[in-house]
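Work package 3, deliverable 3.1, input record:
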Amino acid sequence: MLTVGLTQYLVLAAFLFCCGLFVMTTKRNAVGILIGVELVLNAACLNLVAFSRYRVGTIDGQIATLFIIVLAAAEAAVAIAIFVNYYRTLATIDVDKGDELRG
Amino acid sequence: MSGEVLAFYLLAALAAGSALGCVIATNIVRMAMCLLGTLGAVALLYFLLSANFLAVIQLVVYAGGTLILIVFGIMVTSRTYGEKLKPRTSEALIGTIVVLALFAGLVAILLRAPWTPVAPTEPSNSVAQIGQELLGTYLVPFELASVLLLAVMIGAAYLAQPAKKE
Amino acid sequence: MGSILRKVALPIFLIGVAAIMGIAWAPALLCGTVDSMRDDLGTWYKWDLRGERPTLTVGNIRQYLEGSIEGQFAPAAHVRFGHSTAVAFAYVLWPLQFRITRDVLAVVGVVGFVSLFAMFAIWWERKVAARMQSRLGPMRVGGWHGWAQSLADGLKLLQKEDIFIEGADRPLFRMAAYVAFVPALGLFIALPFSAAWIARDLDVGLIFIFAMFGVGVLGVLIAGWASNNKWSMFGAMREACQMISYEIPLGFALLVPIMTVGTLRLTTIGDLQSGGFQTWLAFRNPFLLAAALLFFIAALASCKRAPFDLPEAESELVAGFHTEYSGFRWALFFFAEYAEMFAAGALAAILFFGAWHSPLPAAWGESWRHGPLWQQALHGVVFSGPLWLIGKGIFFVYVQMWLRWTLPRIRLDQVMYACVQVMLPLAMLVLLANTFWEWLVPSRSVLGMAANAVCTAVGAVAVLAIIGISIYGFVNRRRLVGTLVVKHLPGA
């Protein structure tokens, strides 16, 4: 019988994490890698909230998630700024092309 | 089957399907749209976990802010329309194997873990509680986050400014 | 055919308006009745097992309505029906005690309201635009002032060819219209039409609506991208710039009333303003009045209405992000736009202008609220009810239309300048000042009351001026419009 508990949430989060990891490691588009990072962070957030609801009984997990969301936004802003610069310098967004150590 | 169970499995399917879409898609804008699906589903899952404040913050900051920034970044950085950067076959193969192994391992551990059942708690007024925690217990991280945001704002503006003409 | 249409046109129009009101209001009244009945019966039956409320049977409701329940419990005097009426009502009321019925009702109500409102607003916008340009606007379809114009347009759009251009990203192109439309509809889930008539009374309702405004932008962005057209792309980029920038002053303006009230629950915010015109939040102190103004301007930009309609600037970008759209998908963008316009107006009303309360203090109508059914219904018209919220929402939509047809479009750099260098510092200052005001000046003090009085006077003058100018323009429309136009067109 289908039920909903901590385990179900954790399995879903593990799946999201694995998808994010795959996207991070294989995509060559820099923005795609950023999307992978967001997936991984979301999986972590889901874990924290599920634990805070089903295990701990306090809202500490929610607070941690709040910080993660804020930091993810900040990280995305910096990352996009870097990508714009990267694109301006190399005229591509393929991360594999960025292996030369010169401007 | 209660409504909560049904809602969970629908949303979980949406989140997982969108995440899989992110993996499969080669077009970067479609990847971003799949990310929107995952973010929305996770936000609704937060509603199910009675973390209402977090759910709406996820929608505001992630879906309404970060994702728009990402799509904006895609538009600025892709010259050719529908440019496809496919992963190399060897990389994809190795990645699939590693990730599948990792997922199998995680699930095996999770299913075997002896969680002592704890009755789910229903926070009475999560917004007020979160506010008090943020400005009480977590005051230092909160202030640090604000400093970090300021630094990020300045840094992003500096990085993205047009190159000075020589 | 035409003559028949002309005869039935006005009745159909009025019935339509009544239906809009009914959709929003009748369920509130009915659900309220069931709730009070359940509370009454719950205490009488003492069925309170496991802390859950008892489920009413049809027989319970009939007995309650007839007033024939024996024992110490006496049902309220105003609900004594005859036997057959009670049976009929019992079957109508019985499903309303279940949450799923109410949810279905709410979804139907929201979809019905949004589509009817969008059709009404499109017709009305064309009339307002025409009157402001000394024209008549749609006059022919349906007979009475072209009331069926939107209906005819809708039929036309439905049968138009759904064009996909060469090289468009088809799935994204299809999806974009829905991504724009669904959040615009979804925000009505948390938008209260009155304290009783709301689909989900979220404790974070305000941020939920704010979030939905933000998510809708993605639809526009994707539409511009998937069209494979540089004008669409420019429109989408402008939209993204504009929305991300204006969300910040919008958020700051929202924080000001939140700080005063101390809650994010919209029904609570609304009910705090029930004490008549002078207790509306915008008139509490000068900074809240300024915040209301800032909110309205930022919301105008969020709805991409003129003077901020750069994403669809037709003189520069053909039609902006929806250049390549046709038929029903194109219509969805407009449904979303009008739904957002109404939501912005309704949100302004809820946060700053007394929500669903009339300018009369609610305390005057307290006896009506518990009186017979007709008194309750009248209370909904005179003192507080969805009618007032819809009326206020339409009023703000009208102001948005007025601004659109009066002000010229501003340049993109001016839009950005206005946001980052004018509105953002102003919003921050207003937030800070309001904090100090709430901290230092009690509302009962002389200064607080004087500020309240001055702000009330300013607000009353502004509202009366808008209404007065509109009425003046409407009454003198024959004098203002060229006589030639009036003579040669029917129905003027």
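Chain B touches chain A through 84 residues (CB under 8 Å).
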